[in-house]
Amino acid sequence: MALDGADLVLIDKDLEPLEKVAEEVRRLGRRVLAIKADVSKWGDVYRAVEEAVKVFGHIDILVNNAGIEGPFDFVENISEEDWDAVINVNLKGAFLCVKAVVPYMKKQGYGRIVNVASVAGVEGNAKMTPYCAAKAGMIGLTKALAEELAPYGIRVNVVAPALIEGTALTDRLPKEQREFLARKIPLGRLCKLHEVADLIKFLASDAADFLTGYVHILAGGRARA
Known about the structure:
Low-confidence stretches: none
Structural class: alpha/beta
CATH class: Alpha Beta
Helix content: 40-55%
Number of strands: 6
Strand order of the largest sheet: 3-4-5-6
Order of helices and strands: EHEHEHEHHEHHHE
Strand content: 5-15%
Distance between the termini: 27 Å
Largest sheet: 4 strands, parallel
Number of helices: 8
Oligomer: single chain
CATH architecture: 3-Layer(aba) Sandwich
Radius of gyration: 17 Å
């Protein structure tokens, strides 16, 4: 997005990796703001959005990409704490970010929201109950928001990728889980980072102005719509 001329606001609980990305953005000649915040907490989200508006004056695009994988285990072994943690980051976090930015988008009559779910939210994965439930919830959230916000010039779409190569989340997964998920992809490889980024960039652009409320499955032939 910076390559295409966007100024960026980056939010994460860990500021160090954000600063590395921010430096890359600055080298491209774009402005960038890196904010330490927990998307599962309204106070953090509200503060981050207020700071972003103070610096840039407006918010045109929101990408909800925060996520944790949770446990890989049978449902009876999953604790309430693990369930809450996954739902709070993956689903509640997206809701809170939308809640914070929509008033600004409504006021300007324009906005693009792209939620990053997962193919696991479309067809499910065994032993990943909290994650699948949260990602399915993001798909429902997207469809509801698309209906609600269309009159205000705000488009809302969701990307549902398969397992993505080279992410921290993928690297944290046990070998058994990675192999299990990779075997489910008909094209026989993992999704690449740039493939996800390019689709998000398209959905955030005016080229996608007539698209809203859609689930864009990027999964190498798995769970075809």
